[in-house]
């Protein structure tokens, strides 16, 4: 027979135990988990802050909250890239698990509320987009197997026309097209650096960076697209009156082969050529002292942007891109 005193003791102990554990559970919020995930994927405070659209001090404050609560460091100080402690690693595993479960639950709720039918037709204007778009589409199909997902075939010089004509539900465009369109919503994907590509044996290979004048007597090898769609011409060369000869090729590898054999020079997103730069097949150089940068946006109709599967597709594209492509720059909401 348990005495009333013992019952009171056990009840009081249980209350303290539950209170302590509930406090420990409630201390960690989704914002903390998003922050930890962004820190690991970005590698430092600055890039994580950019990605989450927060200040570095706000990120530091969240880290300090966790460290003060548990009485242990989350990551080792003054390491590049950032290195997690054992506690930080465990919390990162928790973040990955919980955030994935939350996302799955939200998708399930959206299916209940919105129904399960839908379609998503995707069109792109950039030749190099497929490197990150295809893996994102594969993941999306796992999340939304009931949504009819298609890639609109062919290259489209005016992908916004596909939206107007109801031949696409989402198009990927570069920054310079984001002005002057009505009835559509622009969703920032990421920014990136465009670099010059030359042969390792080219006379320009030893330069610190390329100037517009360096292109004067060169052949510029590009994809077969109009000049106004090439940032290197539109932003970097034309304002300085430089109009080099052009040669075109459909495939990235074909362009790089022409460059490697010194039959021209090129300019591409840095993430699209990292493998070739690492092996020394070609040489990459900054365009101008400060560099040349581009941006990519997804464009949808206003109503389509509100659907859960469209929002999840956009988040999947961003996550896959930042996890797999080096040197991306987070963009502020449009």
UniProtKB/TrEMBL annotation:
Cellular-component GO terms for this entry: cytoplasm
Compartment list: Cytoplasm
Protein name: HTH-type transcriptional regulator MetR
Record's keyword terms, sorted: Activator, Amino-acid biosynthesis, Cytoplasm, DNA-binding, Methionine biosynthesis, Repressor, Transcription, Transcription regulation
Domain named HTH lysR-type: residues: 28-85
Any matching Pfam family: LysR_substrate
PROSITE patterns registered for this protein in UniProt: HTH_LYSR (PS50931)
Assigned protein family: Belongs to the LysR transcriptional regulatory family.
SUPFAM superfamilies on file: Periplasmic binding protein-like II, Winged helix' DNA-binding domain
Annotated gene: metR
Gene3D superfamilies recorded: Periplasmic binding protein-like II (3.40.190.10), Winged helix-like DNA-binding domain superfamily/Winged helix DNA-binding domain (1.10.10.10)
Organism of derivation: Candidatus Nitrotoga fabula
A molecular function (GO) term: DNA-binding transcription factor activity
GO biological process: methionine biosynthetic process
């Amino acid at each position: 027979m348990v005495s009333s005193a013992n019952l009171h003791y056990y009840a009081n102990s249980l209350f303290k135990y539950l209170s302590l554990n509930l406090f420990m559970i409630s201390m960690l919020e989704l914002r903390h988990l998003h922050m930890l995930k962004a820190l690991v994927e970005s590698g430092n405070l600055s890039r994580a802050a950019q990605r989450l659209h927060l200040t570095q001090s706000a990120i530091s404050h969240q880290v300090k909250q966790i460290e003060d609560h548990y009485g242990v460091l989350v990551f080792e100080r003054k390491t590049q890239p950032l290195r997690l402690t054992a506690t930080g690693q465990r919390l990162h595993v928790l973040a990955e698990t919980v955030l994935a479960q939350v996302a799955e639950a939200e998708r399930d709720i959206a299916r209940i509320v919105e129904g399960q039918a839908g379609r998503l037709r995707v069109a792109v204007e950039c030749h190099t987009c497929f490197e990150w778009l295809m893996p994102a589409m594969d993941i999306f199909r796992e999340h939304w197997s009931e949504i009819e997902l298609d890639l609109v075939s062919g290259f489209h010089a005016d992908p916004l026309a596909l939206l107007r004509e109801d031949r696409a539900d989402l198009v990927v465009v570069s920054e310079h097209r984001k002005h002057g369109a009505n009835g559509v919503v622009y969703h920032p994907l990421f920014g990136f650096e465009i670099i010059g590509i030359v042969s390792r044996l080219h006379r320009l290979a030893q330069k610190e960076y390329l100037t517009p004048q360096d292109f004067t007597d060169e052949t510029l090898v590009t994809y077969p697209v109009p000049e106004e769609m090439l940032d290197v011409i539109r932003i970097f060369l034309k304002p300085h009156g430089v109009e080099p000869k052009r040669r075109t090729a459909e495939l990235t590898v074909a362009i790089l082969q022409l460059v490697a054999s010194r039959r021209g020079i090129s300019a591409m997103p840095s993430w699209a050529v990292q493998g070739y730069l690492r092996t020394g097949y070609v040489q990459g150089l900054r365009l101008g002292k400060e560099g040349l940068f581009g941006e990519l946006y997804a464009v949808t109709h206003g109503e389509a942007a509100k659907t859960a599967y469209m929002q999840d597709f956009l988040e999947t594209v961003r996550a896959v891109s930042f996890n797999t492509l080096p040197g991306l720059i987070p963009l502020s909401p449009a």
